């Protein structure tokens, strides 16, 4: 019988193939410090209510301290251990260290409430870390936006040139998304910050443990209020992974734009060499691999949301072993999001905007066409009619290969007598941008206001 089985009430060893399928120690390994923490708080709770003697509690706590020290010193590895999971591992190590007293550690708890306590502690830490990672990307974007509050840029809809905008406005669109992601993440933190310990396997615990005190020792702000829900609930993970999928969706949109902008076909930006690769075959290539990978990694996280949803759907209360499958998608989401945010925060400062290419693009696609329609409205033409006349003018400009600025007044007047010399000034792109003088618009003043609002909350 292996060591791990000596702590369970089984006499027959689990089949080798069943062990391969069900044992998770290497996967769980990252829960080790949290599992030790949970055990320490539980033992303190047992001692406090008289369920464990002072001496036993001290001895177990000392064994847990020793384990922490060995872990911190990098002396522990999961390799070669035959334990079922991290909880079995910690318990076995404590028993190996202090003998029979160690067998009292699991009094009044189950791995069902323990695993959720560990997982919530783990996720709380990592939500905070991801929050800081988001802030780092926001700062990098803020610096970029601040450099380009007067840079005219072609705005697209349907990836067709639509209207002129300010580059900072475009960047701040992403900052606004990331701020929402941050907000969502912190709301998820709040629902993760609930201590299930004391729920036992399903029904609660027989010992008069002060659950609120134990939760406090672990840094939780409150305790779960239904033991069955507490051991069966995976909402907080689904929420975290969904929130992460939305975040990764935003990063993928941004990275997609970086890929397009960096293509020589547009040439709006250069990405630093530390974040691009060459081709082994084509010497002219400078590939935006890192942006592409961040774009691609969004699909992993999206996949994980499916895994978690389908895992929990139709599962009867309370704990079922299926639920063990929650960990790999959770961990991979944490890793993927953290790696992506950190690479992006480092890559953004290497981006240089290329004014000549942008200038050239601004004269393509008649970005001022909507402005011409509004010009006609300003000359008393009803908007629908103005829209139609503008359409005809644009068609004729395309035929004669002229920009709207290049059409002569005579040409304009052949479409509408109301057009005057002042049309040219009206069609100037900077004027067009500055007519979008509303909250959230791309006019200089409102871009500046947006930027200072963001700067106040982010402080780059
Ligand atoms: N390794 C398990 C998990 O992650 C721990 C809980 C096991 N509980 C049980 N009754 N088998 O879900």
Report on the architecture of this protein.
It is elongated, with a radius of gyration of 31 Å. The strands form three sheets. A two-stranded antiparallel ribbon has the order 1-2. Strands 3-4 form a two-stranded parallel ribbon. Strands 5-6 form a two-stranded antiparallel sheet. The chain is mainly alpha-helical and 460 residues long. Strand 3 (194-195), helix 8 (211-217) and strand 4 form a beta-alpha-beta unit. The two termini are 59 Å apart. The protein has helices at 16-22, 25-28, 32-48, 54-72, 86-98, 111-147, 167-192, 211-217, 227-232, 235-262, 289-312, 327-347, 355-362, 369-378, 383-399, 409-413, 423-427, 429-434, 444-458; strands at 152-157, 160-166, 194-195, 222-223, 269-270, 352-353. It folds into three domains: 3-107, Fumarase C, Chain B, domain 1 (Orthogonal Bundle); 112-358, Fumarase/aspartase (Central domain) (Fumarase C, Chain A, domain 2, Up-down Bundle), CATH 1.20.200.10; 365-458, Orthogonal Bundle (Ribonucleotide Reductase Protein R1, domain 1), CATH 1.10.40. The longest helix has 37 residues, at 111-147. The protein binds arginine. Arginine binds at residues 24, 85, 111-112, 115, 319, 321, 323-324.
- The number of distinct β-strands equals 6
What is the number of independent domains?
3
What small molecules accompany the polymer chains?
Answer: arginine
What fraction of the residues are assigned to beta strands by DSSP? under 5%
Key attributes of the depicted protein:
single chain; 460 residues; mainly alpha; Fumarase C, Chain B, domain 1; Fumarase C, Chain A, domain 2; Ribonucleotide Reductase Protein R1, domain 1; two-stranded parallel sheet; 6 strands; elongated; disordered N terminus; binds arginine
